[in-house]
Design the sequence.
């Protein structure tokens, strides 16, 4: 029996967290935090296979959290979520170390494609 991959979902919007839970809970182990600062703290103690994180959040936005996470955790896969269909935000996220991004509103199939593709990649060193 294969071990389920673990995913940390970081988004301040309850509706987005719930949508991702409904899409992914059957096949993955999920944990949830609501702010970028919480994601940074979580990653000091846990090693999920993937982080799905919103860009726009209060306290610490996703790009700032991404920069902090990448200082110590180069190997975790990170999928950023943005409400902006902006190549600028996507370029920034990629520049700071995101592996991919997803725009809101998202479709179930698109979430699956992105998650499956990122988890299928060989481990980073």
Sequence:
């Amino acid at each position: 029996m294969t071990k389920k991959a673990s995913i940390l979902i970081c988004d301040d919007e309850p509706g987005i967290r719930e949508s991702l839970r409904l899409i992914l809970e059957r096949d993955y182990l999920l944990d949830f935090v609501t702010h970028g600062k919480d994601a940074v703290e979580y990653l000091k103690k846990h090693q999920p296979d993937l982080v799905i994180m919103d860009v726009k959040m209060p306290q610490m936005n996703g790009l700032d959290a991404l920069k902090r996470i990448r200082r110590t955790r180069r190997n975790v896969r990170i999928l950023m979520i943005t409400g902006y269909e902006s190549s600028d935000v996507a370029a920034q996220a990629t520049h700071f170390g995101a592996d991919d991004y997803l725009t809101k509103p998202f479709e179930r199939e698109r979430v699956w494609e992105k998650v499956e593709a990122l988890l299928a990649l060989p481990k980073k060193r």
Summary: DSSP finds five helices and five strands in the chain. The chain has one domain: 6-120.
